[in-house]
Structures are given as structure tokens and as C-alpha cells.
Amino acid sequence: MFDHVVIGVRDFAASRSFFIQALEPLGVTVAHDGPLGVELCRPDSLSSLCIRREPEESPAHLHLAFTADNRQQVEAFYRAALAAGAMDNGAPGLRAQYHENYYAAFVIGPDGHNIEAVCHEAEA
């Protein structure tokens, strides 16, 4: 269901330490650590939790990314979400900055959260 969940935090060091320690017994490890934050997942999983640095003055945001089986599902999600009242935040397309087959669409839901559908497979 979820590809990844992104949460913004104000105290990045404390949150990073907390999630790494708390999730370690569940087999969760650091998959990527970079300037935006840290990505945590199990070694055998495609789902991840991303902890992002947020400026103190901005509210923490929520980003939900749902797994799509193919690019047509990404496109159908985007159309359905817009029809349901979401605001566009990125039409379906490749996002090569993530990887060569990262095909996603983004919308802003009714509460202002960034909602994504993503397919990691090459075009069929």
C-alpha cells in the first residue's frame, strides 16, 4: 500500500535518534542519510519512512506515497484525485532525480498534505 511516508520534524537530531533506536528491534535500518534527512526501512522491504528537516517557522508536513503497479495506475490516481477535489502538485511523469524509472504524480489533499502515487517499474 505505502511506498514511503515522509514526516517533517523541527528537532531533526532528536527525531533521527529516536526513530533509529525505536525501530531497530523491528529490523529497520538507515537506507539513506543525506542533506534532506534520513530514510529508514527494512533491508527486505520496498516501503520506507523518511524523516525530513523542517525549518522551525514552518509547520511539519505529511507526505504519503502510495505504491502503483504500473504507470497507468499513477495516471488514473492523478485524474481521480483531481476529480475528488485535490489540487495539482505535479502531473504524472518521470522523476529522474530519484531514479530512472521513478514515475509519479503528486496532489495536495483537502488538509494540505502531499499525496503521491509512484511506480518504480520501467514502462511496459
Secondary structure: elements and pairs:
Blueprint lengths: L1 E8 L2 H12 L5 E5 L3 E5 L6 E6 L8 E6 L3 H13 L3 E8 L8 E6 L5 E6 L5
Parallel strand pairs: 1-4, 5-8
Antiparallel strand pairs: 1-5, 2-3, 3-4, 6-7, 7-8
Question: Concise description?
Answer:
The protein has 2 helices and 8 strands. With 124 residues, it is α+β, with helices and mostly antiparallel strands.
Tag the structure with descriptive keywords:
124 residues, alpha+beta, 2,3-Dihydroxybiphenyl 1,2-Dioxygenase, domain 1, 8 strands, lyase, Glyas_Fos-R_dOase_dom, Glyas_Bleomycin-R_OHBP_Dase
Mass-distribution shape: globular
Q: Please give the radius of gyration in angstroms.
A: 15 Å
One letter per element, helices H and strands E, the order comes to: EHEEEEHEEE
In CATH, the homologous superfamily goes by the name 2,3-Dihydroxybiphenyl 1,2-Dioxygenase, domain 1
How many individual β-strands? 8
Largest sheet: 8 strands, mixed
CATH class division:
Alpha Beta
* CATH architecture grouping: Roll
The helix content, as a percent range, equals 10-25%
Strand order of the largest sheet: 2-3-4-1-5-8-7-6
Structural class: alpha+beta
Strand content of the residues, in percent? 35-45%
- What is the number of helical segments per DSSP (H or I, 4+ residues)? 2
Note poorly predicted spans.
none
Q: Would you tell me which CATH topology applies?
A: 2,3-Dihydroxybiphenyl 1,2-Dioxygenase, domain 1
Whole-number tally of structural domains? 1
Euclidean distance between termini CA atoms: 21 Å
How would you state the average pLDDT, rounded? 89
